[in-house]
Design brief:
Length: 411
C-alpha cells in the first residue's frame, strides 16, 4: 500500500464509499478501486473485526471474502475450543506428532481471521488458499500481526496436504459457493469436498475442526461424516450464534469424549448436552384450557432452536411446552440461567374482538412474535392497530387443543 493511499484511506474512511470512489477516481496518484475497497472493508470490520480495524496497515480483501470470513467473536470461540482440545489431546497411534513442534494446517485460508486466532496456539502453521490475491493479503497481514510461525501456501489443499507434516489440528471452512458464485449448503457441494477428503484428514491430524453452514441439519451432518469415516468419529457439534443469530456449525472430528456432545452457544450462553444418553426428545405439554396469567414464558435462543433439543430443555429447567410445535415454554416460576428470553405473562386473549379490547386497550405499541400461528407479524400488527416497540411483548401461537392465543407479556 502506497503512502498516498494510506493517507487517503485514513482521511476518508468514515465517509460514504460511493462518494469516496468518485473522489478517488479523479486522483492519478492512487488506485481508486483499491482505496474504495479498503474503506468498504474497514467500515465492515469496525463491528465484525474491531481489533483488525484498529490496526494500522491491515489490508482488507474484496467484498465476498469480507462477507464470508468469521467474526472476531466466533474466531475467539474456535481458539478457546482448540486450547481445550490441545490440553487433552492424545494423538492416535498412526500419527507421529513432534513433541516440541505443534502443527496446525488451515486448508481454506480465506481472509485469515480464524487462522490468526488459532495460530498463537501452535509453533508452526500452514495457511493454504487457492486465490493468489488472498495469499498476498495474508502474508502482509500476518507479518503485521506478528504471526511469524505461519507459512502461506498458494494452491489446492487436496494437492498440498500430503506434502505437509502431520498436524495436531486441521481446520477447514469449505467454500459454500459453486463455480457460478451461487450459494451451496450440502457438504458435498462445497469446496473442498470434506466427505471425500475425510479419511485422509483423519490419517493426517489428531483433531479436525470443520466450519459449516448454519443451514445444515446437524443430525444429518454427523451421520454423513461418520459414514464417510466408517466409524463414529464426530465428537462435538457446536451451534454458534451471536446476538441470537446462528452464524456457523462447528463440527469436531477426533479428540474429546467418546460420546457425542452438542454445544448450543449464543454469546455468553452455553447449553451442553449428550444426545447419546437416550432420554429422547419428548416434551411435556401444558393443558390447552389452563389459564397462564402470572406464569412465565420462555423463548429459547437461536442455537437451542437450531439444535431442537426441546425435551432436554424442559427436563433441565422444569418447563412445559405450550404445544408440540410452538417452541414456546411456560413455568409457574422464573429460571435464573435460562438460555434465551423469559417474560411474565400478564394477559391472555383469543382472537375474539371483546377479549382483544379487554387485554390490549391502552396499548399503542408492542413487540410481536408469532410461532405456529396463521397470521404474519405484519398482519397481526395491523389487526391490533399497534406500532412496533415499547415494553409490551405479544406472543401469538396455537395451543395444544388447537385454539389460537395471544399472550401479553413483560420482561
Amino acid at each position: 500500500m502506497e503512502q498516498g493511499e494510506t493517507l487517503f484511506i485514513r482521511e476518508h474512511r468514515e465517509e460514504d464509499v460511493r462518494e469516496v470512489a468518485l473522489l478517488a477516481a479523479k486522483r492519478t496518484d492512487i488506485d481508486g478501486r483499491f482505496v474504495a475497497e479498503q474503506i468498504a472493508g474497514w467500515q465492515r470490520a469496525r463491528t465484525k473485526l474491531p481489533s483488525w480495524a484498529a490496526t494500522d496497515g491491515i489490508i482488507f480483501p474484496p467484498q465476498l471474502a469480507m462477507e464470508q470470513c468469521s467474526s472476531e467473536q466466533t474466531a475467539r470461540y474456535k481458539a478457546a475450543l482448540a486450547r481445550r482440545w490441545l490440553s487433552q489431546q492424545t494423538p492416535p497411534a498412526e500419527i507421529e506428532l513432534v513433541a516440541l513442534e505443534r502443527v496446525m494446517i488451515d486448508l481454506t485460508g480465506g481472509f485469515g481471521i480464524d487462522h490468526a486466532a488459532l495460530a498463537p496456539l501452535f509453533t508452526r502453521t500452514f495457511f493454504i488458499e487457492k486465490q493468489t490475491n488472498l495469499c498476498d493479503i495474508a502474508r502482509h497481514n500476518f507479518a503485521l500481526l506478528g504471526l511469524t510461525q505461519t507459512e502461506v501456501r498458494c494452491g489446492d489443499c487436496t494437492e498440498l496436504l500430503p506434502t505437509l507434516p502431520p498436524a495436531a489440528l486441521i481446520y477447514a471452512d469449505p467454500a459454500r459457493r459453486d463455480a457460478q458464485g451461487n450459494r451451496t449448503y450440502a457438504i458435498t457441494d462445497c469446496t473442498p469436498d470434506i466427505i471425500a477428503l475425510l479419511p485422509l484428514l483423519i490419517r493426517r491430524a489428531g483433531i479436525i475442526m470443520l466450519k459449516l453452514s448454519p443451514m445444515l441439519d446437524w443430525h444429518q451432518t454427523v451421520t454423513a461424516l461418520n459414514h464417510a469415516a466408517g466409524a463414529e468419529v464426530v465428537r462435538e457439534v457446536h451451534i454458534v450464534a451471536a446476538a441470537n443469530e446462528c452464524k456457523e456449525l462447528l463440527v469436531v472430528v477426533g479428540g474429546g469424549s467418546s460420546h457425542l456432545m452438542i454445544y448450543c452457544v449464543n454469546d455468553d450462553e452455553v447449553f451442553t448436552y449428550c444426545p447419546d444418553e437416550g432420554r429422547g426428545n419428548a416434551v411435556p405439554i401444558v393443558e390447552g384450557g389452563e389459564r397462564l396469567e402470572g406464569w412465565w414464558l420462555f423463548e429459547p435462543n437461536a442455537a437451542l432452536m437450531k439444535a431442537g433439543c426441546f425435551g432436554e430443555v424442559c427436563r433441565r429447567y422444569g418447563l412445559k411446552a405450550i404445544a408440540a410445535n410452538s417452541h414456546l415454554f411456560v413455568s409457574d416460576s422464573p429460571v435464573a440461567d435460562f438460555p434465551g428470553r423469559q417474560f411474565r405473562i400478564s394477559g391472555m386473549s383469543s382472537m375474539n374482538k371483546k377479549e382483544l379490547r379487554e387485554n390490549f386497550s391502552g396499548i399503542t405499541c408492542a413487540n410481536i412474535t408469532t410461532r405456529n400461528f396463521p397470521m404474519s407479524v405484519a398482519d397481526l400488527r395491523r389487526r391490533l392497530h399497534l406500532a412496533d416497540g415499547g415494553d409490551t411483548y405479544i406472543f401469538a401461537t396455537t395451543r395444544s387443543d388447537g385454539t389460537k392465543v395471544l399472550l401479553k407479556t413483560e420482561k
